[in-house]
Amino acid sequence: MVHISLSPNLEKDDLLTALSRLFFVWEWKGSKYLNKLKKMFADYFANDSIYFFNSGRSALFVFLKSLHLKIGDEVIMQSFTCNAVVNPILWAGGKPMYTDIDETFNLDIQSLEKNITQNTKAIIVQNTFGIPARIDKILEIAKKHSILVIEDCAHALGATYKKQKVGTFGDVAFFSFGRDKVISSVYGGALMINNDLLKKNFENEYKNIQRPSVFWTLQQLLHPLITYVALGMYNFGGKYVLFGAQKIHLLSKAVSKIENFGKKPQYLPCFLPDSLAALALNQFKKLDNLNLHRRNLARIYEKNFKDRDDVLYIEHYDEGTIWLRYPIMHSDADKIKKEAELRGMILGDWYREVIAPDGTNMETMNYQLGKNKTAEYVASKVLNLPTNIRTSQMEAQEVASLVKAYNWKQQFKK
Ligand SMILES: Cc1ncc(COP(=O)(O)O)c(C=O)c1O
């Protein structure tokens, strides 16, 4: 079955890692896996200023807090995003300023320049769906105005821009190990500091955060097990198992409902527990393979849509793109998604709102509808196709064929 979400990176060895951590409860307080994960990250980026958290938004929040923002201080970010990027700004007392996007679904340079004011303190550079932003231009502008650059690598661990690793350009970078991300420990994230001047204030904040509760950790460790079983029997009640497990809080949600209204759940921010570091470590070891698979599926989609003018896709503009998901734009995106579901293919809806997920309160997020026309247009048409390791090349071809066939059917009806 094709499923873009629900632990899409999960393989048997990840399952065994989760099981073993559930068994070795007495090791939960240690730091064996955290130390190994730190070493792997440090070697990968040639930088050991890495700090682990229980989510990407925790990492961003604690960093922004360390800047001691004053009332009116602004942080620029793009629209066509998730409230998990906006909320840390609000929680840290800053004001989000939204740019429009360009044809790579990333921050638009002209719009960035228009949004800079005397109160701008930082720019968050999202690498949407693992497509690298034009960071060289952004750095130039930031330098001219003495503004900090934060790379949001939640979608882009392992991506490169002009052959340099994404995450090594800005003053800091943060990563997510959320369930749908490049590597997954269900909940998790990291901050990497490239500018030593920012370290002292940040470490002062970092030392004050806590471990998450035992129940919260247990909830995350159960996620791979429950989803693995439920996905195996998805059409035979598995769907309801997932729904029920979430209802009784045996499974966590990626974004809680209160976050749609700018509120902070009490489990954020926390350290990454060692047992979840074990999951992230196991996945990190497979990073190149996971990303190679994503690129291969992207190539299949690209080939299929090359001669089609009804399906808009991003031209392969940088070899370093990792394609966490493969976005296309289609005027019948919702209908295709529904039809695919009937055939056992669950496609994705990042970001059908300029600030996702659906239900996010735009007023709380300080976004005025109508502000960023391209972002709103793309949000109204976007559909994401799976590139995850659980989707085979043959299944990707089936997904592409379904998208193409949908249009023929429509033409036939006319
Ligand atoms: C672009 C982007 N940045 C940051 C985040 C935050 O990551 P996390 O879910 O680990 O807090 C998300 C996740 O939802 C995201 O989509």
UniProtKB/TrEMBL annotation:
SUPFAM superfamilies xref list: PLP-dependent transferases
**Keyword Zinc attributed:** no
Q: Check the record and name the InterPro entries matching this protein.
A: DegT/StrS_aminotransferase (IPR000653), PyrdxlP-dep_Trfase (IPR015424), PyrdxlP-dep_Trfase_major (IPR015421), PyrdxlP-dep_Trfase_small (IPR015422)
Modified residue N6-(pyridoxal phosphate)lysine is at which positions?
A: 181
Q: Name one GO molecular function term.
A: transaminase activity
Task: Name the catalytic site residues.
Answer: 181
Q: Which residues form a coiled coil?
A: none
* Domain of life, source organism: Bacteria
Q: Which family does it belong to?
A: Belongs to the DegT/DnrJ/EryC1 family.
Report what the protein is called: DegT/DnrJ/EryC1/StrS aminotransferase
Species per Swiss-Prot/TrEMBL record: Candidatus Spechtbacteria bacterium RIFCSPLOWO2_12_FULL_38_22
